[in-house]
Design brief:
The chain is mainly alpha-helical and about 210 residues long. It folds into 2 domains: about 5-75, Orthogonal Bundle (Helicase, Ruva Protein, domain 3), CATH 1.10.8; about 75-175, no CATH class. It contains 11 helices and no strands. It has helices at about 5-15, 25-35, 40-55, 60-75, 80-90, 100-110, 115-120, 125-145, 150-160, 165-175, 200-205. The longest helix has 24 residues, at about 125-145.
Length: about 210
Amino acid sequence: MAKLEEVTKALMYLAALYPRFVLTEPTIKAYQTILKDLSPELIEKAVEDLGANSTFFPAAAEIRRAAFDLVDQSQGIPSASEAWGQVKGIYADVRQLRLHPLAIEAVNSLGGLSAFGQSSLDAEASWRARFIQAYDVLAKRKRREMDMLPGVRLYADKLAAGKVDSEIQELTAKLTTKQSWPHDWDVSFGHTPEKKMSREELYGDESPDGNE
């Protein structure tokens, strides 16, 4: 976990590369809030990479993204095409029996390896397109989970478990409760429907034939 002085050191390095950027104490503290769950070494390498490739002083989100790009590389997460190659390799070479966990999850979402193995050769293009789409969705979801700040992830898990705050419950109740409308208000069309008027309302005290 990166401390304030360690984040400050990384930002001072960037400030030397981007002398026009004014680095203030509130800015440093804000960056530390976003980056504090990362290791100092990871932040250091991320800012070095950004310093070599970015034209402008990087935002905290950019530093965080660069850090997890390094994590992705270290974990050997394949691209969608590479993962599809792994799936194909299982049938081309029995010695290749290892699939990346994301590739396994993508295949399982489409019915599993057995379903792919039983499909015809003509269906391969369709399988490839569906696999790549499923893999990309899963990879983005995993990356989003990685990018989340610990506090945000904890709150998201709490929401998923149904442990929402009372304020959210109250707001949800308000949004889902049927509104009470005036009896003569036409909600469907947004106007008051025509109402038949009595003789007194239409003619007042005088009747149309002049009789009282």
